[in-house]
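Ops channel
N.P.: pipeline sanity check, posting one input/output pair.
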């Protein structure tokens, strides 16, 4: 008999509820609810509106009930990484969760390094240093708002918080815990030495649990509001962890994956963490995946810059469809200017067109002016960065990588996929687009015994989803352009 499963996938700008129909050999998906997920600025900071996000889950569940769909076998929630809620002794939030791009963490990295050297933190956690990591958010709260940490009883990362609101059961799921830079990558437990050195309380921590288990049914209150009582599965709560489950690769395939959206996560799957000097020198990250695997990857800025440029253009010109922008990008001259997508200036919201132009100006390049020129600069630079990160990976692992597999929303950007194939001189296999939701669903199927392991899940994805191949043909000019890119943006890393 078939199974119906419900996934809620929260990205850093939008969220969606997706219903899966599993026949036993194939799986089909249908979106049942989509909503905006924008941070809210209030009281001097940006926050996530956690109550509204919980309300969106209940709206999606209610939509199913009104359709007459009541036989849902399981549900799972995934979100972006690092962000968290702090609860008091009554299990009430002490504040809304901070938005990871908020300026709260300005200066936090430097304060942490005064107490503990980067090399030691990396050796313990294996995590890339990003200013928004949970370690730096907690240091910033301790520095600016110490009373919050004095009162906190429980810390719940975002999917764990939503699962708690759904079930009344508090958990700390492994894939999310591994993003915090506060977990020992080898023991898979909280690194209490780091907490001690940073004077951050540990009594707020819950035991870390592996993904792929049923937490509990939704509460009576949720059933009263939505009409549904559904077993909630602790999936890979980190969206990249879910997406990697859905990469339709074979066991012996020599490929790198890119989970491509607002962020691009480029890496491979390993059996053990790699915290070598080579890995530390370029800050490849070791995040925990399903089945005790390691997602050995690099965080790259992704389509964030493109999205911000498009938002700024639409404020001036009104709604612009992607086909119009693609035509303008294709008409713009190639290889004129490059940016480093990971340069610090591009991290914060606002004035993105000006930031792109200024990067080109200060590096002595022609300054892009038209919409097509600006966005071509962004997409070509991102494709070049993918090649650069892939070559770093080959150097760390001392092995060649033959293929790039891209999953996530970025698969729909045909120009980026073409540029990536040409920049890297490797075939790019793009799909599935809804990888995060698919991987979330596969974890549910494994939890309820319908799939045996991650490889059976990947075969199911391959059988159920379309993949488009982009060949690295007509590469005239790309090698010379890559050399220029390295000279502008990568030499100083």
């Amino acid at each position: 008999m078939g199974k119906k499963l419900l996934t809620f996938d929260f990205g850093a700008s939008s969220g969606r509820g997706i219903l899966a129909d599993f026949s036993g050999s194939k799986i089909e998906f249908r979106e049942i609810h989509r909503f905006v997920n924008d941070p809210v600025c209030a009281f001097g900071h940006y926050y996530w509106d956690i109550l509204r996000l919980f309300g969106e889950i209940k709206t999606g569940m209610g939509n199913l009930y009104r359709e007459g769909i009541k036989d849902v076998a399981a549900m799972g929630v995934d979100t972006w990484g690092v962000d968290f809620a702090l609860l008091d002794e009554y299990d009430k939030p002490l504040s809304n969760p901070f938005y990871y791009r908020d300026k709260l963490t300005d200066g936090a990295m430097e304060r942490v390094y005064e107490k503990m050297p980067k090399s030691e933190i990396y050796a313990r956690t294996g995590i890339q240093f990003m200013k928004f990591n949970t370690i730096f958010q907690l240091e910033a709260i301790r520095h600016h708002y110490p009373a919050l940490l004095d009162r906190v009883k429980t810390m719940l990362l975002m999917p764990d918080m939503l699962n708690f609101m759904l079930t009344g059961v508090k958990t700390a799921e492994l894939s999310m815990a591994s993003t915090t830079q506060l977990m020992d990558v080898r023991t898979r437990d909280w690194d209490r030495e780091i907490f001690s050195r940073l004077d951050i309380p540990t009594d707020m921590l819950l035991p870390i649990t592996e993904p792929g288990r049923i937490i509990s049914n939704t509460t009576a209150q949720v059933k009263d509001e939505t009409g549904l009582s559904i077993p909630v599965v602790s999936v890979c709560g980190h969206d990249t962890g879910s997406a990697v489950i859905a990469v339709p690769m074979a066991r012996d395939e020599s490929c790198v994956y890119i989970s491509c959206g607002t962020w691009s996560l480029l890496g491979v799957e390993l059996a053990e963490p790699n915290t070598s000097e080579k890995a530390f020198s370029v800050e490849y990250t070791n995040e925990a995946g399903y089945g005790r695997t390691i997602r050995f990857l690099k965080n790259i800025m992704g389509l964030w810059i493109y999205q911000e440029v498009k938002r700024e253009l639409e404020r001036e010109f009104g709604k612009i469809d992607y086909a119009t922008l693609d035509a303008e990008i294709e008409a713009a001259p190639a290889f004129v200017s490059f940016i480093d997508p990971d340069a610090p200036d591009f991290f914060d919201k606002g004035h993105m067109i000006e930031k792109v132009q200024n990067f080109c100006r200060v590096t002595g390049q022609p300054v892009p002016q038209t919409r097509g020129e600006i966005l071509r600069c962004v997409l070509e630079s991102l494709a070049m960065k993918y090649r650069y990160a892939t070559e770093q990976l080959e150097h760390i692992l001392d092995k060649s990588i033959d293929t790039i597999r891209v999953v996530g929303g970025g698969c729909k950007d045909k120009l980026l996929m073409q540029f990536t194939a040409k920049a890297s001189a490797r075939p790019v296999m793009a799909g599935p687009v809804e990888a995060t939701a698919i991987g979330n669903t596969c974890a549910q199927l494994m939890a309820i015994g319908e799939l045996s392991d991650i490889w059976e899940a990947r075969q199911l994805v391959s059988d159920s989803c379309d993949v488009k191949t982009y060949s690295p043909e007509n590469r005239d000019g790309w090698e010379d352009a890559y050399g220029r890119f390295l000279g502008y943006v990568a030499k100083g890393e």
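N.P.: looks fine end to end. The chain has a mean pLDDT of 96.
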